[in-house]
């Protein structure tokens, strides 16, 4: 027997993106069902942002205190690894979603647990754990917020060694003795930083010539140097050829293209080599779409060619970050409500219904030491885009606030200036504890605040934010 | 015999403000003399911002590490007080201005050491330590950047006990056993925080009903609670009636208006009860101005009625903060250069020649624990101004980034919104380590970024900056 229900909006996937779409449409007066096969709250709450930052924060706080002569004398002990793991568990609510399910109910959203598949126009069929089926019909819209999942590259034997994905790396209950990390992107770098500080002997294998390939080059260089300083074996230009288990050991074969292949042995291997859309097996073919890859959406996150269908968050591949998923959820939610009520939907840049920041102002922080905080275009991306621009750089350690913050502070600030409009296209900060500096750049970039006005945005002395003044002075020459 | 020289511009006072005026006009192609009677670099470098933050940073870093379960286990020792004092000394270059004098020379500015007095139109007479006189004639402008000094209130006996002013409090070579602080403004609160953490038994006497009277009320309340938690005796509504010495002790008599006066004994007393302009004894009367009080200047920092004379920095009383003095220096310097070269000087708001931020966007950070970081109008000032506004408040501890940062994080974010223009009039953050969050608010306020656009300025997750999203959601309701 199939239960049949009708809602204004059916949201598939109850990660932070889906939760926010459902919340916005309900606040807008529509009814909504929210479907989830795993934990309500999704990747970020249980297997990404929250646990990874909880694993890193203690290390970061200790480094900050050790870096200040006078304070360093107080740091005579070691981090309590069990306490840090317990703290991580508390931030994931020990992987229970009771609190989030309660929030969903309180928000007036109907939670439907099970696996969802589209079944033709405006219909979603949910199969519960017990095999029961619920057929959800959507009057106005279906929002697919199924997110992304770790991609395991097609390396011989790699799947068979049962590698960690970011999920296992963030939720591990014990510190691995030797950890081999495949991939030097932000997940690989953060997990190498975290587990190394907690006692693992870590090797990072990055195929390219640099860590953090999408960031300004100075970022990857600084993080590589710091990881090496912390005892991590960072190998660049390292192509993984195969993997196998020998007893409890994992053996990874690596080639740097020149010499003979080398074997690296570990107790665990983490594959942090990119993500892919979770679009397989959700019935896309029943509505005339190809059943794989990222969803192709317009600026209001509406799937092109299917006006009642939205693809919001990681699933559209525009910007695979929790905060961008939530942002898209607000914009798409507003568009869904407006269209349902017959209101105008302004599709021009920066309107309340479009996700313009996805292309112009995506912020991200890599919580390594040094941290890497960036928004908008890097110099390389600006060059690719063909926009007229100039790159302005300033050593963050030359700012009084930085040297007060940590002895011998080293860091870099880079601004990419649109020379035609004299606004910022992008900003990157590399250095210890720069995470909270970033939002100033986000406001400047997303706000398209002219440089002439930024001279009036005076940084408080002596904070690290004074680097803004130095960047402007460097720009002026 | 008097040495006579002529410059395009004569700058009186080589604190950071005067240094910046001289630098800007020299970069603009003018010649400049810079006169200083004390240390080149001024108050901020030797007796204010730099040493006070150096005294506080170790305490702050230790508190941050102690506040993270897991990390706290590593903090088993105590701060090394001597190392902290030595670190403070290094940030003041042990009160030597060699480095700064070298910078001045390198910038092409002529440094003239001695006490300066105006001597009629466009003339400054400098008396050196050896009694020699130098007569400096200015072709275009004289900029008075003499700053401010600690005011000692007219309390019976107070001057006679030889109290600390902020200068002595920031440069002390030893930790006082018992320190009595008169004044609960930002200097009193910072010095109470610093010296208490370094071992002093501290009493704070504040005449008003709250610490940090100019900030949002929640700020003073939070700082008072924290100081008390750290063992500081904070007395509000405490009027100091008299002071006297008894042997090595200082005895301060205090009344709370109700009961009998009480005697408080200490080893040292710090008077942190406001500042006054350093305008006495600089010859203002020779150019037809009254010889005391803050200089009355226009938006380009030109003294009203005396077109060749500028009053820049603390001396004009507009915003007594190092970074605002430097800002004014940039704006006034640009105006001086423009006027000297016959260029147009646009006096409209936010032009390169006016200090609009002095009234619209003054940022300040109080480096207590919790820190208080604010820009623009408080709710109270907005009400006084008569501008249509609404106050939006959000508990900073509810943000994921804050609870990751410190266990049990407590804090508050307050935004004052102009309901007519839908831009921010002011923002205050109260909480541990909020200093670097401030510049995002400075850019938003000085940039007059509309709230509609701020929705597109996405905070990176999970940083404390996510509070921006919560403030916007609270505003929307």
UniProtKB/TrEMBL annotation, chains A, B:
Name of this protein: Dihydrolipoamide dehydrogenase
Pyridine nucleotide-disulphide oxidoreductase dimerisation domain sequence ranges: 362-468
Residues holding NAD(+): 183-190, 206, 274
Organism phylogeny: Bacteria, Bacillati, Actinomycetota, Actinomycetes, Geodermatophilales
Keyword terms, alphabetized: FAD, Flavoprotein, NAD, Nucleotide-binding
GO molecular function: dihydrolipoyl dehydrogenase (NADH) activity; flavin adenine dinucleotide binding
Classification via InterPro entries: Class-I_Pyr_Nuc-Dis_Oxidored, FAD/NAD-bd_sf, FAD/NAD-binding_dom, FAD/NAD-linked_Rdtase_dimer_sf, Pyr_nuc-diS_OxRdtase, Pyr_nucl-diS_OxRdtase_dimer
FAD/NAD(P)-binding domain residues: 7-324
Record keyword NAD present: yes
Cofactor note: Binds 1 FAD per subunit.
Intrachain disulfide bonds: 44-49
Family stated for the protein in its record: Belongs to the class-I pyridine nucleotide-disulfide oxidoreductase family.
UniProt key word Calcium: no
Species the sequence originates in: Trujillonella endophytica
A Pfam family it matches: Pyr_redox_dim
